[in-house]
């Protein structure tokens, strides 16, 4: 089997690309980073440091790379059995045009073998969004052929992959935590479902998408924002602050109650899952800076993301939500001159105030109870 993976960054190499290669699949990375692409082409292998209770360095082999601006990319798309991505929401829309061109070439060549595409992003049903973008670039006459032959498979992904370690000179070296979770919607595959150890199939993807979003992502972000307010630089330092840990755990329990009501998760099993996430935040081998985790607050305050979506669920089920409210309020205290979204959020906040700004980005009523509660929590945090 041949796989084309968009995104040769740390997540691409350390998570999805590694799982594919470990499964015996020939992986070609597509990226614009010429240093990384050249190194992959020359070495066709790279090291991954897997850290947990112990540190183990594993070699990933049988890999290659292509510049994603190359004219050859369309051939690679047309001939791949499996296409995966780890590029982020913005770039996902950019590669949609190339995917459409490759699919068009594949169909017109008479290739009737199934092909599957999986966007492995921190997005809710990111592959479905990618499919819509691809269709917008594909001639309408070929839409039926794409529906018949190309599977767009939604997924939920979870693995902490921090930036390169200080002093690291190898452009291909990457560090990842031991834990990883890649869950895919088995109902969306065309043809046979590939056997990839580490890829778990389900027919109820949204339960796992929201479990990860409401637990890992919600907890991670609130740890960052409360950690910044407490003067910490890393997620590890923040979660080892008893006060921060207590508040983060309480927020995860609030969002967890939404999951239990909505999907019927076992209460004891979910409590254990929360503890597992907290232990991952404290991994001594991962230096994950709070400023990195806190970035892009506008996206993270959107109605379908890690703060507002679980918070809305607490109102739906009439569940206590004081710690989730505090997490939202803390987002308005996040300042980072190197992050355009943080700058934009603070500019609107300064001009129009918290109520209007929150209502605008989170799509809530400016006179709603949630806005009043966040304002109160913000005032308390400021003091």
Largest sheet at a glance?
Answer: 6 strands, parallel
CATH architecture of the largest domain: 3-Layer(aba) Sandwich
In CATH terms, the superfamily of the largest domain is: NAD(P)-binding Rossmann-like Domain
**Rg, please?**
21 Å
Number of domains: 2
Strand percent estimate: 15-25%
CATH level-1 class of the largest domain? Alpha Beta
CATH topology term of the largest domain: Rossmann fold
End-to-end separation:
59 Å
User: Globular, elongated, flat, extended or rod-shaped: what is the shape?
Assistant: globular
How many DSSP helices?
A: 16
Q: What string gives the helices and strands in order?
A: EHEHEEEHEHEHHEEEEEHHHHHHHHHH
Structural class: alpha/beta
Total beta strand runs: 12
Poorly predicted runs of 5 or more residues: none
* Helix content estimate: 40-55%
What is the typical, i.e. mean, pLDDT? 96
Cross-sheet strand order for the largest sheet:
5-2-1-6-7-8
């Amino acid at each position: 089997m041949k796989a084309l993976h968009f995104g040769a960054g740390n997540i691409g190499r350390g998570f999805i690309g590694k799982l594919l290669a470990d499964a015996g699949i020939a992986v070609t990375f597509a990226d614009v980073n010429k240093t990384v692409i050249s190194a992959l082409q020359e070495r066709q292998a790279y090291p991954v440091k897997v850290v947990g209770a112990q540190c183990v360095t594993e070699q990933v082999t049988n890999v290659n790379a292509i510049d994603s601006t190359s004219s050859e990319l369309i051939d690679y798309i047309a001939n791949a059995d499996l296409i995966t991505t780890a590029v982020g929401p913005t770039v996902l829309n950019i590669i949609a045009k190339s995917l459409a061109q490759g699919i068009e070439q594949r169909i017109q060549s008479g290739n009737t073998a199934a092909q599957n595409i999986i966007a492995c992003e921190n997005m809710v049903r990111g592959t479905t969004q990618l499919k819509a973008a691809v269709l917008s670039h594909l001639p309408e006459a070929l839409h039926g052929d794409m529906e018949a032959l190309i599977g767009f498979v939604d997924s939920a992904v979870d693995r902490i992959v921090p930036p390169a370690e200080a002093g690291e000179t190898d452009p291909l070296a990457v560090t990842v935590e031991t834990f990883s979770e890649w869950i895919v919607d088995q109902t969306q595959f065309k043809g046979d479902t590939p056997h990839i150890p580490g890829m778990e199939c389900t027919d109820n993807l949204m339960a796992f998408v929201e479990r990860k979003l409401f637990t890992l992502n919600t907890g991670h972000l609130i740890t960052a924002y409360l950690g910044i307010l407490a003067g910490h630089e890393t997620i590890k330092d923040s979660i080892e602050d008893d006060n921060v840990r207590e508040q983060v755990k309480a927020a995860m329990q609030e969002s967890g109650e939404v999951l239990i009501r909505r999907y019927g998760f076992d209460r004891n099993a979910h409590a254990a899952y929360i503890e597992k996430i907290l232990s991952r935040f404290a991994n001594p081998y991962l230096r994950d800076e709070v400023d990195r985790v806190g970035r892009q607050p506008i996206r993270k305050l959107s109605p379908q993301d890690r703060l507002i979506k679980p918070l809305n669920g607490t109102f739906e089920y009439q569940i206590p939500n004081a710690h989730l409210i505090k997490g939202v309020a803390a987002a308005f205290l996040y300042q980072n001159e190197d992050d355009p979204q943080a700058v934009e959020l603070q500019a609107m906040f300064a001009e129009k105030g918290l109520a209007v700004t929150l209502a605008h980005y989170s799509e809530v009523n400016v006179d709603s109870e949630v806005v009043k509660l966040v304002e109160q929590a913000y005032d308390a945090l400021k003091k």
